[in-house]
Structures are given as C-alpha cells and as structure tokens.
Specification:
Layout (H helix, E strand, L loop, with lengths): L10 E3 L6 H13 L11 E8 L4 E5 L12 H12 L5 E10 L2 E2 L8 H14 L4 E6 L2 E5 L18
Parallel strand pairs: 4-6
Antiparallel strand pairs: 1-7, 2-3, 2-4, 4-5, 6-7
C-alpha cells in the first residue's frame, strides 16, 4: 500500500490586504448578492469574474420552486461570461453571500457542481483562476480552482 498526501495552501486576508483588482472583484460579488432570487433559502450569493480583457461579469443565485431548476451564482456568472466572451479567459472569481443577518462572517465555498464547472473552465483556457471567498471576518484567497477540487474529473480522464 502506498499513502499519498495532498497539501493545499490558501491565504487568509483582510479586505485592505487585497490588491485593487481583487478588491473590486470582491466588491462586485457583494453587490451581486442583491441580484439574487432566493425566495426559498433566503441565502443570497453573488459572484464576480474578472476576465483577461479587464472586464467583469457578475452572477447571482436564482432559485425556483422546482429546486433542480435553480442555478448557483458561480455557474450563472461563468455561463454568462462564456456566452458573452467565449474567447476571453477568466483570471479571477470572487464569491460573497448574505442571509437574513447580512453578509456571512465566514467565507462561503462553492458547491461541487460549481467546482466541476470551474475546473473545466480553468482547463479550457489552460490558465489558473484565482478564487476569492469573502466573509466579513476575512477572505480566503486560493491560487487555483484545482486547489478546491483535488483529484478532479476531466475530459482527459475519459481517454486513458
């Protein structure tokens, strides 16, 4: 038997420690929470993408009474970006969330379905996507989506 260890590093930062682009991305993610339609969960999530051309695309979660018909903020933003500017790689993804008490204190992490879409976008452009997870008590800065989804399933896995 062989034991393999995975090591993942991320930074824990405060808003004032972010560079200008990171700060704007987080602010846009926070603003995007206002575009959420979360009638059932009352959990409003916003996402902001910084594209390589310097533009931003935002997304917000959209719920539906037929629960599988809703969409997370991350995928809403990613699919919008891919539809609007398919030639443009994504450099950064910021995520923020709020509930009935306001913005969450702890950073919110993307669900598994969003992580799978995120890793495929990263692989599509062959460029890492920096991920910023916002909470009022601090921000997680993750270098790459691959750090959020180790042992991920990719197209190449189907051809081995």
């Amino acid at each position: 038997m062989k034991t393999i260890e995975l090591n993942i590093k991320w930074q824990f930062l405060q808003m004032e420690e972010l560079d200008d682009k990171e700060r704007v991305a987080v602010e846009k993610a926070i603003e995007a929470t206002n575009n959420s339609y979360a009638k059932y969960s009352n959990f409003n999530v916003g996402a902001a993408l910084l594209l390589e051309d310097g533009s931003f695309v935002i997304g917000a979660n959209q719920e539906n009474a037929a629960f599988p018909s809703g969409l997370c903020a991350e995928r809403a933003a990613l699919f919008a970006a891919q539809s609007l500017k398919p030639q443009c790689a994504i450099q950064m993804l910021a995520i923020a969330a709020k509930n009935e008490h306001g913005l969450t204190a702890k950073p919110v992490s993307p669900c598994g379905a969003c992580r799978q879409v995120m890793i495929e976008v990263e692989q599509r452009y062959k460029k890492t996507i920096e991920v910023l997870l916002y909470g009022t008590k601090g921000i997680y800065k993750i270098h790459s989506v691959e750090d959020l989804l180790p042992l991920c399933f990719l197209d190449e896995d189907m051809n081995q």
